[in-house]
Please model this.
Amino acid sequence: MITGLDHYKDKWNIASDTSIKPGLHAIKQALQELDNPHENHQFIHIAGTNGKGSTAAFIAAILMQHGKSVGNFFSPAIEDVHDQIQIDREPATEEDFDTAFEKLSKVQTPLTDFELLTAAAFLLFNRRKPDFIIIEAGMGGRFDSTNVIEPLISVIPSISLEHTNFLGSTIAEIAWHKAGIIKKGKPIAIGKLPEEAEKVICTTAEKMSSEILKSKDLFEGELKMKGQHQKANANLAMLVAQNTLENQFKEHLAILGISSTSLSFRFEEVYPDVIFDGAHNEASVDALVETVRKIYSDREIHIVMGLLKDKDHEAILRKLETISDHFTFLEFENERALPAQILFSKSSSKIKTILNDCDILPVSSKNEVTIVTGSLYLLAILRKRNYSMFEHYRPD
Model:
């Protein structure tokens, strides 16, 4: 479900499939009908399990500090479909979408929702013509609809188990999908990857005559986005920008851009002692747990969460239970949402309850920090409702 997409589908009488159908045939055919708006642009393509959005935001900030205009295609939305397509970190406007969807209404090739949005992004970028365009793959990489571009450089921040029903049940199988974004003769920048994943990436890169750029260090400056994993993402972004800008690259501008970068739902403090973090798989939950332990070692932790059905909810619960024994599970509107009752029944926490996402959450302790986590779709719903659940947390 792509929030807000139906408005434009209805307005322009466009039918598209809500299901996930990996493959490039349909998107290529549709783009050909649209005179290939994805050609002749300077793309940076990012795939991976975690860190894609943060790395993309860091790269955009560096490029913008160097006076470049930058397009971003993020996945999924924070509030609605408009913020998935951005120019200089500003969401696309209704006029932008109408201009794109008017053209899309004439396309005969049947598309899925994500293919439709991908095509809209290419149309919008082709119209606005930013200097660089950073594209985040939706799922996997090799058969993701974004994988029709010829990027200057490809980027893989991390690889761990995800979407196993589509991508495979092993790290190596998932890495094969991610490696599909590597293009012949173009460099691939990677973060710290599991050994079996790096082996797949290296084998693919060798076949494609692609140079491998490895980010090994952590960014040493201060960041608005907290956690060691963000320092790794920031350093990877620095490496990508340096390769992209070549002799135009200025380290002091890169540091300035990185230090000022923020992104919604990345350990974001929306109210005092209320943190939104979109950790939704084991690797990102590990990063969240590490960050909470470092920043709030002397505080009680209340976990508020909801997940999608395709996540390993028991593994995620076990990890979060190492920092909290107080859980609130949320029901939220999404066809892929895991029923809160399942989370409740599998939880080992001492204090647990189920709430609807419209209910008011009580404050149980002044020493308590509330971490709202799990599905990005859930976090987006709560934001769209102006955080009404946290009425008692609002500062006076």
